[in-house]
């Protein structure tokens, strides 16, 4: 009997080793509401600069249990821009520190937090716990075919899910961005906080976990 059990365990181990996707069987998608940063298709200023505002509005709407229309999202983004101008003196290219201030000081979400030098598992664990993750990126490294070439120097997205290969994101930089997929290695490589001058890829690796 013991020998049979050992044999069964060995066979199961070999099977799972040969098919790691089945072994992991690890896929989660959070129902984070989506908006493009230009919800009505007008990509002129200020909408062309609203990736951070859109990301904050989407993530916070989810943790607050709110379903927003396109008009609602547009109003949220404009209000966030006003908040930024009053408190930061600018409303374009906010790094993770000021983006966190939007969540905490505008929305009152004191549980949102920055994690520096995260791993892909950091992001997956947050999603497993039910928390969307805001990721700052060097947009030109994402290779999104819907971006106007060469893509944004600095950008921000919301990770809302993953499977064994990809991160599933709300990508505000295109109207096709609901549930867009980036390879996990692609997103981790592109992850960089804002750098005002010089090479954006020198920006620190960081994310914002939007807890509730």
From TrEMBL:
Highest taxon, organism lineage: Bacteria
InterPro entries: Peptidase_C39-like (IPR039564)
UniProt xrefs under Pfam families: Peptidase_C39_2
Gene3D superfamilies given in the database record: Cysteine proteinases (3.90.70.10)
UniProt KW keywords: Signal
Signal sequence range: 1-23
Peptidase C39-like domain residues: 31-172
Protein name: Peptidase C39-like domain-containing protein
Organism: Candidatus Sungbacteria bacterium RIFCSPHIGHO2_02_FULL_49_12
């Amino acid at each position: 009997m013991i020998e049979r059990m050992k044999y069964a365990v060995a066979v199961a181990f070999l099977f799972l080793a040969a098919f790691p996707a089945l072994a992991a069987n690890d896929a989660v998608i959070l129902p984070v509401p989506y908006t493009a940063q230009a919800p009505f298709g007008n990509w002129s200023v200020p909408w062309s600069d609203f990736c951070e505002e859109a990301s904050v509005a989407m993530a916070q709407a989810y943790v607050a249990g709110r379903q927003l229309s396109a008009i609602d999202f547009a109003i949220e983004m404009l209000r966030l821009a006003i908040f930024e101008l009053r408190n930061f003196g600018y409303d374009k290219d906010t790094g993770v520190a000021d983006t966190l201030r939007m969540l905490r000081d505008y929305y009152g979400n004191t549980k949102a937090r920055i994690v520096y030098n995260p791993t892909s598992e950091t992001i997956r664990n947050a999603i497993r716990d039910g928390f969307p993750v805001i990721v700052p990126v060097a947009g030109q490294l994402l290779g999104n075919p819907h971006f106007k070439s060469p893509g944004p120097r600095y950008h921000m997205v919301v990770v809302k899910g993953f499977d064994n290969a990809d991160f599933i994101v709300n990508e505000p930089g295109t109207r096709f961005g609901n549930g867009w997929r980036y390879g996990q290695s692609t997103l981790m490589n592109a992850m960089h906080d804002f750098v005002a001058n010089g090479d954006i890829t020198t920006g620190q690796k960081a994310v914002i976990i939007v807890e509730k």
